[in-house]
Structure formats: C-alpha cells, structure tokens
Amino acid sequence: MLRTCRALCSQASPSPGGWQPPNFDGGAFHLKGTGELTRALLVLRLCAWPPLVTHGLALQAWSQRLLGSRLSGALLRASIYGQFVAGETAEEVTGCVQQLKTLGLRPLLAVPTEEEPDSAVKTGEAWYEGNLRAMLRCVDLSRGLLETPGRTGDILMQLKITALASTQLCKELTSWVRRPGDSLELSPKRLAEAMDSGRDLQVSFLNTEQNRHLQASLSRLHRVVQHARAQHVRLLVDAEYTSLNPTLSLLVAALAVRWNSPREGGPWVWNTYQAYLKDTYERLRRDAGAADRAGLAFGVKLVRGAYLDKERELARLQGTEDPTQPDYEATNQSYSRCLELMLNHVAHRGPTCHLMVASHNEESVRQATKRMWELDIPLDGPICFGQLLGMCDHVSLALGQAGYAVYKSIPYGSLEEVIPYLIRRAQENRSVLRGARRERELLSQELRRRLLGRGLRVPH
C-alpha cells in the first residue's frame, strides 16, 4: 500500500519543469478495498437506472412495507446510504472522515434538510429553529474534524439558506429584487445592519407575519455565521432554483458585508454559481468586481448546476424565457469561461479570493490544474476541488494524492432524514449519475484485474 501511494504521488505531482496533466485512469482505485469498489459499482449502476431515481421515494415505502423497517434499513445501509452518507452519529462521521484523510481528501459536511411546503411541521418557525441547531452542531462537528485550520487546512461546510428561511419568503423577496431599480429596503448594507444589531427590520411590501419571519431568518443566518467564524469554519451557501437565487445572493451579499472583510480573515461566506444558467458569467464578473471595489474577500463555489429539467419545465409552464444554456456543450463553455475568470481573479487578488472547482468533469479539472500552474497559484493556496462523496473517486483520489486540496461533499444523519434527501438530489442530478459511465468502466476494470489475480499494478 505504501509503495502504491508513493508511486501515485510521484506520478501525479506537478513536475518542476512543466505542468503534468493529472491521470484519471483509475490507478488511484488501488487505495480502496475490493468491498468498497464492488459496492460503488453496484450502487452507481443502480442509480443510472431511471425508474429507480424517478420512483425512489415510492420504492422506499414499498420496501419498508414488504421487508419491514429493519431489513429494508439494513439493505439501504449496505448500499445507497453506505455509498453516499458518512453515517448517523458523530463517531460514524469521524470514522468516515478519518478514512478520507488517509486518501488525501477533506470533508465538506452537509446537513440534509428538505422543506415540504404543504407540511405545517416542516415550514413552521420551530422547524427552522431546529435546523439552526443542526447547523450549529454541524459547525462544531466540522471544527472537530480538523485539528489545525489554516491556509493548508481550511474547514469548509455547506449551508442551505432555505433550511433557515422559507422558500415562500425567498420567492416573495425575489419578485422585488428583480424589479427595475430594486428597493433600497433590500440593500445588503441594510440587511447586514439588521442582522448585526438585532433590531426589527420592517419591509413595506411584506405583511406582519412575513416581516417577523424575515427578522427571525436574518437572526438565524447571523448566528450560524457568527459561530462558524468563531470556530474557523467557512460556509459555502448552496444555490437552488432561479426563483430563489436572487434572494439567496442578496442574503450572501449582506453576510459578506459583515463577515468577508479581509480583517476578519475572510471570506467566511461563499456563494455558489451555476454555469448552466445563461446569466452566470456576467453575474460572477459583476460580483467579483463589486467585492474588489468594496475591499471585501470573495469566495466562490463553481458548479455546472442540478435543476436543469425543472427549470426548463417551469419556464415552459410560465411562458417565460428558458434561463438555462441550450445544451451540454454550451454549459461546458460557460463553466470554462467562469473558471478562467475566477482563476485570473485569484491570481490577481491572492488569499482574499477563494475558489472551489466543484466538478466531476475531467476536462474542467485539467483546465483548472493547468491554469493554476501557468498562473503560479500554489497547490496549498486558495483554490480547492470538490466532488460528491461516493462519486468521481477516480478524479478525487488522483488529485488528493497529487497534493491538491480536494473536498468530498458529505451528508450525514439518520436513514429517515437522509434517504429522501438523497433521492431528491439524485432526481436533480440525473445527468451526473448518467455521466458516471466512465467511473463505472474504471471500477469494472479494477475489479476484473483483482478477480483475475494479477499482481498489484503500480502506474508508471
């Protein structure tokens, strides 16, 4: 095992004389056990089967009725849950993270929350307060997983704003944000002052109940970021649907005013930009420039996007322009342009600008590593890579062994909490699951090699 790790590091580390492209041929699978690889192959094949993804919640309920909760739960833990989830208890999460660390990978914890608009329980104020407590515990858990945070060991955690503020409120605010000459009542500075002071914020176009919920939501956000800053944990805010994103960006901008000052060691709050939307490049360029002019640190998680089918269907039903790129190639071009923009921004601004290249696409990752070398951005600098736990390991492992900072997005929690979350994420990420064909092929090759009894192959 030690010889294998050394060989992978020697092969993948950038040469002093020039850039060496990372090798994503599955050689790093030697670092994982046969049982892990077998489960990964079976689960990824199952997830590529459309009926399972489409009817996942119904199939889960049917399995519980037919097999009973105990047996059904055991099957899920041995398959989908075990592949994509760190565990339920702090001890299980810690064990998963320790295993990742031995592979050169880092944790990006995520609290799985699913608002249900028709449920009084899962939209009431008590539910959001419960989510706040879960977020604060996640901050503490994230902090406890890394002993020495710093430039070479930043602690990152995902934050979903609609776990702390209702989607209905976000839609209402978005309708005003999008109006020409949007209201000064919703300026980031005014929202930041309300967060910091705790004074009631009254917005004229909201009713009494909505204003009360807005104030409570701002308080929850402030408490999470305040606690995260104290624990040296950086928060990556999830992007969601286009009907919500303008409000999410507004709230991130308000938090940035308070917490992303270089004096605070920021950025502590990052926003997520979805390259599959037509306006993303211009928004990213505008936001990066605004942060620069304001003297604020700037943090970006760059993704392709997960809500393609729903966004297109919603635009069709509403008779509005489709906000998404016309095809996959256009999305790739958008991602490449946004990536180039941010890499140059990082090279110019240094440690006050951070970027996560959150991609399962090998060409995007190669582009990032090549441009990092050309722009003289160090591997232990403010750029990192991100993939989902249980997926794209041939990329994650190769990057981690080469010395890049690589994070795996890690949901955790009970079966009851996580399985609905996983199924909905699978429905949103159908293209990613279908696109895992190359990973399945590499897994098959490695398992065949082991079953045929050939010796340990060390890449060279």
TrEMBL record:
Residues 197-433 form the Proline dehydrogenase domain. GO terms for molecular function: FAD binding; proline dehydrogenase activity. One of its GO terms (cellular component) is mitochondrion. Keywords: FAD, Flavoprotein, Oxidoreductase, Proline metabolism. InterPro entries: FAD-linked_oxidoreductase-like, Proline_DH_dom, Proline_oxidase. The keyword Oxidoreductase applies. The keyword ATP-binding does not apply. It catalyses: trans-4-hydroxy-L-proline + a quinone = (3R,5S)-1-pyrroline-3-hydroxy-5-carboxylate + a quinol + H(+); L-proline + a quinone = (S)-1-pyrroline-5-carboxylate + a quinol + H(+). Its EC number is 1.5.5.2. Its cofactor is FAD. GO terms for biological process: L-proline catabolic process to L-glutamate. Converts proline to delta-1-pyrroline-5-carboxylate. PANTHER family: HYDROXYPROLINE DEHYDROGENASE (PTHR13914:SF29), PROLINE OXIDASE (PTHR13914). Belongs to the proline oxidase family. This is Proline dehydrogenase. It comes from Sus scrofa.
